Amino acid sequence: MKSSFLIALALAGAALAGCASPRLAGNPQQQIHRSEPAPILVGVGKVEITPPTGTPLAGYSRRKSKPSQGVRDPLYVRAISLSDGQDTALLVSADLLVFPPPLVETLARRISSEWNLPRQSLLLTATHTHSGPGAIARGLLYPIVFGRYSRKREQEFISRVMEAVGQAMEQ
Fold this sequence. Notes:
Layout: H1 2-15, E1 41-48, E2 76-83, E3 88-94, H2 101-115, E4 122-126, H3 142-146, H4 151-170
Parallel strand pairs: 3-4
Antiparallel strand pairs: 1-2, 2-3
Helix pairs in contact: 2-4
């Protein structure tokens, strides 16, 4: 799990390597020219997302939504913010099978609203573990992969993601 986060961090760092002349959000072709490169400010956050025993695990369709039977290792959501003082990029990595699109949209709206962060400055990524929490995805086919939807589990997950983002953005 650590290697996935480090790879994502390296990619985010590479993407921000041009922060000395960042693009304007409204016009990707227009550049801001500075006389000197700005320092990169970094914030990090980490919050445990291990669901309680009995929660469906995502990615085990053969288990037919049987609940988890215990915890071997804790699961986390991690966030890293990178800023040059004007523009900020945020990377969120969670120990999940995937981020379901409806959940991505909910999180993107909340993060953009709360932190005034343009959607294109946000990257959500999952470690693709088959031992991650289920019950967090709504929709016709999601119960096959994520188990039966639970609004309570989804809201708990969103709250923990927002906590990790808050830690990263406030540093």
